[in-house]
């Protein structure tokens, strides 16, 4: 069985050095620039310390949830889930498409987009390998819906939590306002997923042979990993702080591996690139904000209270999400939108939720997904990814903002 994180084979005469990936250099560059901003005084030390304190829970979540996903994959949980989905599809490629869409959408809506990226990406990759089909359509289903299906509930996205606090909407009235835009976003995502990824892969593969149920090599580790994931999900649903939930779940699983398979516990499990990237990103974006970003955002979003203002907010949110990241893009946009302009704020939210698709760093979910694909040995066709994701971001953001303007509660 192919597992995530197996060490590469070494040459017989000398060890093979691992070359840094482009995203490694981006992460290091951001961190260096962020530190330079603090040392030169462009970002006051007090502001930098406040920023670091604010992102510590995010860093804890990222660090622990990636370890949880890595070890869960090694334990075979994702292979078992993939086999169950394939069996349920009963050999139908079209049924498999609908099942993957439903699972990805529900996971994002009920939990959050980062959880979908962490836990569902390995399931989709394992499913593709189980059925011996190209992994790209299933992987793209995960990353696209992790972003575009994150509008319906406040818990679905961290930006939603920020917006719901600003507007003062509880989950039920929030869902009543956002259900129609959410349906539109998912429908467009499904259409483009089928046309660009699933339809070409379907050629010659209308039927497939469902696999047998997966038998894990170590049932104790398998049960421990499954229990850890279920505990994580239950804690998130219960409102436990997400970093605490992932930390406890990861600690339980690490303890299980320490007893049953200590050799699998290596420093390489820690996602240093993600942690360095996020820290550097927030320091750099905060520095830019102090030196003109807020002014630029205000000029681009404008002050129109109607449809024009909403469309501009959505477009600016999507654009800046792909340039920097959706969380700082939302915070920068929120700062220049009047408190009473709820529709314009929700349009900005659409842009920062549905739009961050065209670059790997546009959202933490997209970045985690890219990291999961790379760790599992899946080569993401970057050119095609950027082109199709940019088209989806533009079309879905526009259509979803339009649905927000004409839907219930508008």
TrEMBL record:
Keywords, sorted A to Z: Arsenical resistance, Cell membrane, Membrane, Transmembrane, Transmembrane helix, Transport
Membrane topology field: Multi-pass membrane protein
Entry annotated with the keyword Nucleotide-binding: no
Domain Citrate transporter-like: 25-341
Transmembrane helix recorded as keyword: yes
Cellular localization per UniProt: Cell membrane
Stretches that traverse the bilayer: 23-43, 55-83, 95-126, 179-198, 225-258, 270-289, 345-370, 382-406
Origin superkingdom: Bacteria
PANTHER family xref list: TRANSPORTER ARSB-RELATED (PTHR43302:SF5)
Family of the protein in this entry: Belongs to the ArsB family. Belongs to the CitM (TC 2.A.11) transporter family.
Name of the protein in question: SLC13 family permease
Species whose genome carries this gene: Micromonospora maritima
